[in-house]
Specification:
single chain, 10 strands, binds 4-(N,N-dimethylamino)cinnamoyl-COA
């Protein structure tokens, strides 16, 4: 597959997508957005890949949707082009996606990072929703995901008053999983992803689906969703292997079956 606005790389069982429009702070234009999701879906379907990383460069993860492309858009065009559906493709990815964020994660860039399963932030990462400064509001889930993650007050401040979070604040408030030095931030994310990619694949998939269910429904329905994911795991070879390995005091060898 040939891309113009992203680079892809495989390290071990980790698939890496690097956003590559540095001249525009990796702003998501239509091409970049399409390529990003195409690449993630290809990795998702690849049995040799156990987890994925999306990253940018040291200065910018992504500065949001491409304002220059969007400036003259009409609601009709946006609906016709299915822009909402395009952003939503991240929700169809079954494997774990980690955002490795350095520098700016603004607007749609912040929203995309929030849509990933976990965030590794470099010490220079900055998260914000500046849409209000250009006369709009977040349109790729920012109001909802920030409110669920950070609570109402801080979400309001970010969305209404353009409050930016530093990496340290993102860690403190539970938005980032870990903060690492800028030098080697991608290597740190890869090491994290490798840990996940080395686990029993179906259990990881069910775990992701179950945690996500918590954001969609009531506790009772969420517990049912968890059970629906829990019991089928007992039909996998990996469950038998995992428990046998524990009893035999050895490392499990996953088959992904
Ligand atoms: N779009 C287009 N170009 C951008 C850009 C963006 N979001 N961000 C930066 N650039 C471009 C700049 O215009 C500049 O280009 P040239 O002038 O050199 O041609 C180049 O990148 C370098 O930027 P700066 O010169 O500004 O660099 P600085 O280091 O001074 O500042 C910055 C970096 C990231 C703080 C600054 O560039 C900035 O504030 N950027 C805009 C951030 C922003 O407002 N983001 C929100 C965009 S709105 C939707 C779902 C979601 C969305 C839309 C629709 N649907 C479901 C339909 C999302 C909307 C958004 O994200």
């Amino acid at each position: 597959m040939t891309y113009t606005s992203i680079l892809t790389e495989v390290r071990g069982r980790v698939g890496i997508v690097k956003l590559n429009r540095p001249q525009a702070m990796n702003a998501f234009n239509t091409i970049l957005l399409g390529e990003l999701f195409d690449a993630l879906e290809i990795f998702d379907a690849d049995e040799n890949i156990g987890a994925m990383i999306v990253t940018g460069n040291e200065k910018a993860f992504a500065a949001g949707a491409d304002i220059k492309e969007m400036a003259d858009a009409t609601p009709f065009e946006m609906i016709k082009q299915g822009r909402v559906e395009k952003w939503d493709r991240i929700r169809g990815i079954k494997k774990v996606v980690i955002a490795a964020v350095s520098g700016w994660a603004l607007g749609g860039g912040c929203e995309f990072a929030l849509s990933c399963d976990m965030i590794v932030a470099s010490e220079s990462a900055k998260f914000g929703q500046p849409e209000i400064t250009i006369g709009i509001i977040p349109g790729a889930g920012g109001t909802q995901r920030l409110a669920r993650l950070l609570g109402k007050q801080l979400a309001m401040e970010m969305v209404i008053n353009n409050r930016t979070l530093t990496a340290a604040e993102a860690l403190q408030f539970g938005l980032a999983n870990r903060v690492v030095p800028v030098e080697g931030y991608l290597d740190a994310a890869v090491a994290f992803a490798e840990e996940i990619a080395a686990r029993a694949p179906m259990a990881v998939r069910m775990a992701k689906d179950s945690v996500n269910a918590a954001f969609e429904t009531t506790l009772t329905e969420g517990l049912k969703a968890e059970k629906r994911n829990f019991y089928p795991l007992f039909s996998t070879e990996d469950q038998k292997e995992g428990m046998k390995a524990f009893i035999e005091k050895r490392k499990a060898e996953w088959k992904g079956q």
